[in-house]
Amino acid sequence: MGVEHTLNMTDHSPVKPFLEIYDTTLRDGSQAEDVSFSVEDKVHIALKLDELGIHYIEGGWPGANPKDIEFFRVIKTTPLSHATVVAFGSTRKADNAVRNDPNLQALLSAETETVTLFGKSWTLHVTEALGTSLEKNVELIGDSIAYLCDQQRRVFYDAEHFFDGYKTDAGYAMKTLRKAAEAGAERIILCDTNGGSMPWEIKEIFEHVKDECSVPLGIHAHNDAEMGVANSIMAVNAGARQVQGTINGIGERCGNANLCSIVANLQLKMNMPVLEDKQLAQLRKVSMYVSDIANLLPNKRQPYVGDTAFAHKGGVHIHAVQKNPLTYEHVQPEDIGNHRRVLISDNSGRSAVLGKIETLGLSLPKEDAHVQNLLSSLKAREYEGYQFEGAEGSFELMVKKALGEHTPFFELLGCRVIIEKRQTNEQPVMSEATIMVKVGGVVEHTAAIGDGPVNALDNALRKALEKFYPQLRDVKLLDYKVRVLSGSQGTGSRVRVLIESGDHKGKWSTVGVSENIIEASWQALVDGIEYKLLQEERPLS
Description:
Elements: E1 20-23, H1 39-52, E2 56-60, H2 66-75, E3 84-90, H3 102-109, E4 114-120, H4 123-130, H5 134-150, E5 154-160, H6 162-168, H7 170-183, E6 187-192, H8 199-212, E7 217-221, H9 228-237, E8 242-245, H10 259-268, H11 277-280, H12 283-293, E9 311-312, H13 315-323, E10 341-342, H14 350-359, H15 369-384, H16 392-402, E11 411-420, E12 430-439, E13 442-450, H17 453-465, E14 476-484, E15 495-503, E16 506-514, H18 517-536
Parallel strand pairs: 1-2, 1-8, 2-3, 3-4, 4-5, 5-6, 6-7, 7-8, 9-10
Antiparallel strand pairs: 11-12, 12-13, 14-15, 15-16
Helix pairs in contact: 1-2, 1-12, 5-7, 6-7, 8-9, 9-10, 13-14, 16-18, 17-18
């Protein structure tokens, strides 16, 4: 058997105060709907988590699929600076001896020094999910952990469904923990697997367990009642020494506890530094990176790291935050790698417009006529249906045009879009755009096809301009949204088109409004390209 760690009914020796951050994005996170990581994806994310300073990275379940087996093979040859990679799996099956259990052998084959093993704490799961006796389940937990310890593995034990199990039969739930500790588990993680517990329940149960436990405890919370972060913080407050979760809270069903919020709360609110300051400042970047690799749109309203976490729209708010950010910001956005944003809308006043102009590197006196003209123009265009709070690229172009500081990068001489529907339903609708532009006195005439009229226009426009501006080859249309502004005129109603474009350097949004959806799309497309070029170079003469 492994080295003994017992649940002691009287020993209250203090645990080491160091708090461990355990990331399970690559395992629990990959179980989220619409998420599928390749082996390369998992390795890249692991490297980012390591740079962030995460202590443990759960790489996957090597007994579950070939992809995870390959990940553990590759990650062994990948140098990491901070993190320890952990393999995850279950206790042995009831009819297998430990040496013959495929799951335990796969865990050993992963060759990680640390293994996380999960077992059942809830009588309901023992009798109905496992279909075995309560005593047999305790045996499975004990000899599985002891076997891995005998094979020189550190074992963390995930007590699955622990809080539901404790609420149903506290004595049995504690018996499973006692067996895990006796067998040699170095950490015991209390799991709210169904995500339905409330913070006060977590606190009360955690404190009861801690009073009887000499093994450091951890918390693994799911978010089905939107309490994942709150329950994790409550557990830390009650004495947890390991916190498990995923980046952005991705995971099965409603997701896992969000490590982005947990880490920021621990460090900035609870004075429990788990990362270096320079690592914490990478939190938003890692959040965006994981969303990108997972092919998920980032949650712009996510606390701390979201686009709108430090965005101000109301005139009173903007005026106050420009005087002192503490008036409407609970932390400094730079601490987690975010930044303040001033949103411009028809609610904006002179201070908001001035503040936004300053973010563009321009400075104007408050009494300058340009400020009032810009404000009037802004309100008039928003009345027409434009929306600049979500289209900052178009707003910057409007400002520079109003100040006489923008020269167009190209001139449209004409364009045409053809949509052709063939007779057979099996053939897709064809869209072709022809475009003629002038750049620096040179006329370029070209055509391109696309999945739809807007995609065809985008392809044709960039095809015409790339010979003059090769950096446009990196630009991609990331998102396209259309909103009908008024349904009273049927198909003749005005529409607003919001387009998000991006490249390897960043993302930007632009807007167009018209009764004609192609015209509105054209406006947004042109603004998107001009904004990109504005950041890189001056126009050709």
